[in-house]
Amino acid sequence: MEEKQKPEQIVYGKNPVVELLKSGGVDTVMVSDSMAPQQAAYYGALAKQAGAVLKKVHPNKLRQLCGTENHQGVAAWASLMEYASVEEILEKAAQKGEDPFLVLADGVEDPHNLGAIIRSAFLCGAHGLVVPKRGGAAVTPTVMKSSAGAAARLPVARVANIGETIRRLKEKNIFVYCADMGGEPLAKTDLTGPLALVMGSEGAGVSALVRKLCDGAVSLDMEADAGGVDSFNVSVAAGILLYEIRRQRRAGQ
Fold first, then answer.
1. Displacement of CA 66 from its chain's centroid (Å)
2. Which of 40, 60, 178, 228 could form a disulfide with 206 if both were Cys (CB 3.0 to 4.6 A apart)?
């Protein structure tokens, strides 16, 4: 089953807070009392438009709330966030009159990697992203910041079982590819039409069961002598693959 939970969280950093305010999912915005008046007024106007309260606080307060010095002078209490369902993501594609385009994270544990994948997915036109309830990162403040706010705008579904989700997508005639070093070269792979792309964990890649369930696998060429480095970082690989999917989809229009 998919999880419909609303975990309260604090989001910090200029871009993530701006994107969150644009999404309307904010209760309170806090800015450093040392922030330049013009910049503070900008956040105040966005907060007013979003129906949120603006508070000026000491920088130490922001540091304590965010757990880091890297808060850039602004933070926001997000309204209790709700994960989407896979059906809602598919409905979004239908409303746009587009073939579904989803990204599935099979055990991506590093929140910075997940945030970067969400950012690339959003910019490359994906309709949504799916993460597992267990065995992978959820949407946390770190993910939100790493996504530069894209996690507030791209629907994210949280499911109990990635394998079962793949089965359901295939029943809807959505072709499911996974990124795998043993897959077909990217240049030879047709990534048009209804599509889901599965990205595996940082260490082990896509799990054996998920690999078996996928309709196909795609790989990225690398230099023959890479000095012992045998793979791309998962978020880098996702960015390359997602951009190619976007290119092929736009070329086919």
1. 20
2. 178
Three-state DSSP class for residue 252: coil
Tens digit of pLDDT for each residue in 186-207? 999 999 999 999 999 988 889 9
How far apart CA 165 and CA 71 sit, in angstroms, is 36
Closest by CA position to 187, among listed 231, 123, 247: 247
Report CA-CA distances (Å) from 176 to 70, 91, 112, 193, 197.
Answer: 38, 18, 25, 11, 6
**Amino acid identity at 248:** Q
Count how many residues are written for the chain.
Answer: 253
- pLDDT for residue 253 is more than 70: no
Secondary element (H or E) of residue 245: helix 234-251
Residue identified by tokens 């507030």 is: 152
